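User: Assemble these into one structure.

Assistant: Restating your components, then the assembled model:
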Amino acid sequence: MSNVLLKLDSVSKTYRPLRRDPVHAVRHFSLDVQDGQIVALLGSSGCGKTSMLRMIAGFETVTNGAIELKGRAIHTLPPAKRNVAMAFEGYSLYPPLTVHENMALALKSQGVGRVELDEQVNSIARLLEIENILNKYPSSISAGQQQRASLGRALIRRADLHLLDEPMGQLEPQLRAVLRGRIKHFIKERQLTAILVTHDQTEANALADRIAVMEDGNLQQFDTPETIKARPANLFTGTFIGEPPMNIFHSEVELNDQFLKFHLGTDVVLRFPESAFSADLRDQLLNVRKVTLGVRPYAVRLSDVGVSAEVYANQWLGDQSHVAARFAAGSVISVSHDRVSTKEGETVCIEFPVTDLHIFDTRDGSAISHGGKPA
Amino acid sequence: MNGLAIEGLSKTFKDQIVLDEVSFDVDKGETLVLFGPSGAGKTVLLRCIAGAVDQDSGTIWIDGHNVTATPPEARGVGMAFQNFALFPHMNAFENIASPLRARKSEPTKLEESVRAIARLLKIDHVLAHAPRELSNGQKQRTALARALAAEPGLLLLDDPLRNVDAKLRFEMRLELPRLLAGREATVIYVTQDYKEAMALGNRIAVLEEGRIAQIGTAEDIYLSPSNIAIAKLFGDPVINLLDVVPDCDERGAFFDLSDQRIALDFLPEKAVGVPCTLGIRPEDFTITKADVPNALPVNIEAETPLNEKTVTLAVTPLGQELLASRPAGTAIHGQDSAGYVFNSRKILFFDSKSGLRMDNSHSNEKRSE
Amino acid sequence: MRHHTVLETWLRGLAIAVIVLFFMFPIFWIVLMSFQTNETILRSPPSMAFVPTISNYEAIFAGRLDSNVASMDIKFLGNLGNSIILSVGSVAVALLLGVPAAYAFARHKFRGSEDIAFTLLSFRFAPPLLVLLPLTTYFQALGIADTYFGLIWVYQLICLPLILWIVRGYFEDIPADIEHAYRTAGHGWFATFRKIALPLAMPGIAAAGLLAFIFAWNNFIFALVLASADKQPVTVGALAFVTASGIQYGQIAAAVVLSIAPTLMLALYAQRYLVEGLSLGAVKG
């Protein structure tokens, strides 16, 4: 598991449209993908994730840097010579072939026998719930079915690397939830290595061993889903990852009477015992002074002690409650797995456990502390 | 009566029945969510109420007036559209002002009202911008402001959060009730997102193939869905369905799952000896060791995180896939081979043949009385 | 997305230049001819070198055609005026009738609406000559032969279907929800047509109007049969330059330059407007 399969070495992509300013789609992107790993490139539209994937696949030239697959440089090879399978966002099924033929095509050219081929196509079709449309043509099936067929065509191939570009964007939420688990199981069972491009963090979290968060062509953080969530490297990752999004408060730090006090602009002050932070961290916080506090909605507790806030929404969603309250010239959102009974207009007390407190430098957004420990 | 009343509304497009005898009442000030999969008829129903589409038969009453034959401009409704439907050749101000202009509002008052609603929706700084210069979130707020501007008695919102990103959708979902409160407007809200439906609706009307399959509070529908299809529409991950034939003997109620007897503390009378589909929500499963009594024997296939929850995909010896969810960070007992324990009071019993729910333990009629 | 090397940019430029030259050459040549006498035009081999003369234009404006054999009166300026009256008149009538009709066809599907729309288009199928003979008889009986009114009426065969079908497409492209939004805001259907549909379809209406104008301007056969000398447009009037003493190429060229000038200017003016209209964009979504 520890062999580097794919190595991206300071890859950049610059588009130079006629008579317009150049666009830096990807900037000095470096990352290692281990053999058997699933890596997600996660970001909003225009962050460069699709450009990066297309460079790996060979549909896009590399402006600068190198891509190595199994130790050989592939960034100058044509796509067909890279031994990479790809599921396209736009499906790209061959219209004159049935779904079965589409999926079987690559295996056929690799000389797989008829019986084994049918068996493989059928097993993937069962996995993706498209057995009943194997004999249909792409034009006569729905977008969701086309997408699953395209995904099946990529997964069935024997390749060094599987690239999946928004593979489940067109599927209904219920089906998506089931397929995520099955696809992960399939990839792990066959020990495939895959790179997934998605804007949906639920999908990235569910499928990937490691997530590369991208923004504006830059790699923001590359780590396991758990680490990215628990220890976001900067304010961008902190607010981008996590649904519902992290609560954010700008504040100024002060040490007073053995309490570390965070002044949230208005007269709201959060107090933590100074012992909750290490001495070094305390000095750093007091030195930086202007910090941004981040607390995930699941960590915000409604309790009897703490700072008071006025509830303006309490929404129950069957398996969780979302409570929003006016707080410190803005709002705070609390989510719990149990049903909460508070009503609109009521005043509640809000408590932020120090163990769930993320602190960022307000000036450059870099993380200073997670849960009272240095970042 | 005040509010909105629909009686026997039907609509057919080219031999396809889109609305089939739809009837319901909405109280003044109430928010009713029209919920259902795409193609269920939600959007057409909303357009019939607005007057943009003519129904084949049926009657529509708004605040006690029969408006069935009234043209849309005279129905006094405000409407926000899924694709925003902003007027591309007018700036945000003129877009919001258009209902006020139609009502010949006095210029200074018009300006005041537009600015007030824009401030409320935090778009007062972009009033001079053309729609193409607005971000998606601002477009959506402008569309909402336009619908609210003339303080209509009936507000029709057609999936207004569909085309904004997840973060904004979440914020708006919490903010909307506050915006609507105090306006005393009756609100009809169309959505495909069950979370929005549960969060925003005083009641939810679930549409299925042009018919209202169930109407009730979020609680009614989540805890007592009237059929399998509705149960599957609410909840993430989707509700688990298990086909069994429960029975009763001297030791009590039970069903067999690959030679293992699973006891039930509760079994509706009608379900005895009948092919049933059990509906069990993922959060109602607890994962235990395989040898715990009454646990469903399963093999765990995958664990995936989902918004602060961990979702476990496991397979029974018969190959049925069952999802369980628990708050993230809590550990499970047992390894690959484990058991799923559930509280049989929380099971939903459906007749496998008709798909209808069998028990009446959570009465569905509570609200309509 | 692709980027272009210097060579690619250069080759593209060359290709565009060749195409422009190919299409513009006839116009360029005609402009050259209009400043030459018949002798320099007809010399062999042809040459670009000549002493420019404006005698052709003088002859047209003076209304007298002097050749080396004889001189005769021509009414080219009168023809030009006729062309303008006929084209502007018929496009105006066609827009007045066609745009509301196009809106009706686009928005209000009723039983037989497709058939009516198709029938209107089918006017363009029949060869004009076939229609002309009965039409002439009718027009004479009605007393509208050789009137602007009658000619503009006949020109509707050319303009109306064109405007109807092009503008209808543009109306259909406006999302119905935008109009629904305006109506639920409290405006009547006519206000919606005027304030929403018309402005948003304006690029299409302009394009269709321009196209109809060009077709009307270039029409020959209807005017040839139905109009007498004093109602003739330039297309028919140009026949006068074919005289017994030969063809006056120089004057024809000058007449052609004068007759394409209005359409050309209109097209250049409208182009700016069309581009503006299209870049207004974002009609969808």
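Chain A has nine helices and 22 strands.
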